[in-house]
């Protein structure tokens, strides 16, 4: 059974929570572009009329959309709910949190995350070699120079920065969005203090080789070296996660 407001095309079916149906239909309009970024949504009273639901139902729907970073709500005379314009970093942080919960619930493994990196980062390295400019290479070089001056616990973050910088050089925000959350979860789960100095030296050497390939605009070598680097790290990640021995 469903209720439909005349002339609007909006409806609520009594098969799931009404607020979720309201949120889902508004979400569809936002994601399809029917409600562009910055658009002010109808008032709560107007939404009640459009959907034929109570004000509390509308408020729950708006809270759900806000929690999904789809709308921003402000108060006051000029306030209301507006279609949000989230930046890539915000989306990546939220996705990283969700992936972390999946790992905690054993619905994702370290191997799953590394496999995802293997699918994305080698291709990104090839693309970076085609698009890198002088400033990009300087930024990539900087992450490498700084790791040699820091202790392993701190340098660990900069070793990850090499990879995030490499992906950023592609200029494709979607690739950054795909890689960033995966790397964030891996970084937070691994026991970096257990990594032997010799391992860091091997990682630094791999980064040097990848950097050289990107700087030489050798896409084939950049892709191959990045893949080999990630494959070599795979067993390291598993032992680091277990935390049973120095690696």
TrEMBL record:
Pfam families in alphabetical order: FCD, GntR
Q: Which SMART domains match?
A: FCD, HTH_GNTR
Domain named HTH gntR-type: which ranges? Answer: 16-86
Any GO MF annotation of the entry: DNA-binding transcription factor activity
Indicate the segments annotated as coiled coil, or none if absent.
none
Any idea which UniProt keywords this protein has?
DNA-binding, Transcription, Transcription regulation
Q: Which PANTHER family match?
A: TRANSCRIPTIONAL REGULATOR, GNTR FAMILY, UXU OPERON TRANSCRIPTIONAL REGULATOR
Name recorded for this polypeptide: FadR family transcriptional regulator
Query: What is the species listed in this Swiss-Prot or TrEMBL entry?
Result: Amycolatopsis acidicola
What lineage does the source organism belong to?
Answer: Bacteria, Bacillati, Actinomycetota, Actinomycetes, Pseudonocardiales
């Amino acid at each position: 059974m469903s209720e439909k407001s005349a002339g609007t095309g909006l409806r609520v079916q009594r098969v799931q929570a009404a607020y979720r149906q309201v949120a889902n239909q508004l979400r569809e309009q936002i994601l399809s572009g029917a409600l562009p970024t910055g658009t002010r949504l109808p008032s709560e009273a107007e939404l009640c009329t459009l959907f034929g639901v109570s004000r509390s139902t509308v408020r729950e729907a708006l809270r759900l959309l806000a929690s999904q970073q789809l709308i921003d709500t402000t108060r006051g005379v000029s306030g209301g709910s507006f279609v949000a314009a989230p930046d890539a970093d915000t989306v990546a942080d939220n996705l990283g949190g969700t992936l972390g919960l999946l790992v905690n619930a054993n619905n994702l493994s370290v191997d799953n995350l590394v496999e995802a990196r293997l699918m994305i980062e080698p291709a990104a390295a090839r693309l970076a070699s085609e698009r890198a400019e002088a400033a990009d290479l300087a930024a990539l070089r900087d992450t490498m120079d700084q790791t040699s001056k820091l202790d392993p616990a701190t340098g660990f973050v900069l070793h990850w920065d090499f990879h995030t910088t490499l992906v950023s050089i592609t200029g494709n925000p979607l690739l950054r969005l795909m890689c960033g959350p995966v790397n964030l979860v891996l970084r937070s789960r691994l026991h970096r203090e257990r990594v032997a100095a010799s391992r860091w030296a091997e990682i630094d050497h791999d980064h040097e080789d990848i950097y050289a390939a990107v700087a030489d605009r050798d896409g084939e070598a950049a892709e191959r070296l990045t893949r080999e680097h990630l494959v070599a790290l795979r067993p390291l990640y598993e032992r680091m996660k277990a935390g049973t021995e120095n690696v």
